[in-house]
Amino acid sequence: MPRRAAYDVFNGDADGICALHQLRLAFPKQAELITGVKRDVALLRRLPETGAFEVSVLDVSLDSNAAPLKRVLAAGGRVFYFDHHSAAQAFRHPRLHLFWDDAPQVCSAILVDRQLNGRHRAWAAVAAFGDNLAEVGRALAAQAGLDGAGAARLEELGLVLNYNAYGETVADLHMAPDAL
């Protein structure tokens, strides 16, 4: 059986980038990257119209992507979906692996961290700081064995990654999220 085309679809902010980074540190895979600026949330529409793909989706609202998600699944695709935004349109499907929690102290990288049993927890801390969850970020940094100075460096990285994502288009950003 030929290998499925793989796509990593992620929000271009700190949470999306760090969630994907953790996932690929744990499970390396060649995949085409689909991302954008922080407010560009309808990213699954950029997937090809046909084909049975393997798709990882990180920090992208399911409600904004329900129709293209259903299309991918109907075509035989398999989707791993990590998100903390609204999921009122969530549904069950045998090839949809949805990891979702909209608690106010959760970001998508924390959902990945849970699945990885903390294997790359420092990256979850970076994402938490970037998503304005400073207290959570400090707790995660401490669990990763970092002192106050180490946590401060992760906080700075999270904020820089997050602020980089603000713009109308990728051309407005200091660095394209897929280059980070």
Q: What distinguishing features does this structure have?
A:
alpha/beta, about 180 residues
How far apart the termini lie comes to 33 Å
Strand order of the largest sheet: 2-1-3-4-5
The CATH topology assignment is: inorganic pyrophosphatase (n-terminal core)
What proportion strand?
Answer: 5-15%
Quick one: overall form?
globular
Please compute the radius of gyration using only Cα atoms: 16 Å
Largest sheet: 5 strands, parallel
> What is the number of beta strands?
5
Enumerate how many helices there are, as a single number.
6
Number of domains: 1
Task: Find the structural class using helix and strand composition.
Answer: alpha/beta
Please tell me the overall pLDDT. 93
Percent of residues in helices:
25-40%
CATH architectural name? Alpha-Beta Complex
CATH class: Alpha Beta
Task: Give the uncertain stretches in residue-range form.
Answer: none
List SSEs in N-to-C order: EHEEHEEHHHH
Could you outline the blueprint of secondary structure elements for this entry?
Layout: E1 6-10, H1 14-26, E2 32-34, E3 54-58, H2 66-74, E4 78-83, E5 96-100, H3 108-115, H4 121-130, H5 134-143, H6 148-164
Parallel strand pairs: 1-2, 1-3, 3-4, 4-5
Helix pairs in contact: 1-3, 1-4, 3-4, 4-5, 4-6, 5-6
